[in-house]
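Recall the central idea of this unit: under ordinary conditions, the amino acid sequence of a chain determines the structure it adopts. In this exercise we apply that idea directly, starting from the sequence alone.
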Amino acid sequence: MTLSEIRLRARAQTGDRCATDADDDALINAYVNEAQLLLYGEYAPEETQALSGDGDVSALPEAYHGALADYGSYRLLGNSGLGAQQRSQYYHMRFELAQMQLRRHFERRAARTRLGNKFN
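Accordingly, the structure predicted from this sequence is:
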């Protein structure tokens, strides 16, 4: 997903709580980059580059691009009223689930490499 697609998804998940203002775009971009660091920064900090242009694509595996939008939705809704804050917890749980799955993915990959080098 490109950054613009991630922003559109975050807007749709929040029920278009925010209009298409440049300020809101900058806010969503900041949340997406924060999510990318949380997901990928621990395992490959050198590959984690901030997304800024509409056509930029995250270095994360494609299956986890939706988690970036989920985190953006969580943070956007968390800044709103009580009902929106309760809805934001759903997106936070989805993000944390993706975070756990990605952690297992990297741990399995590291274990294969470690054992492969030991016995080859």
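The CA atoms of residues 41 and 48 lie 6 Å apart.
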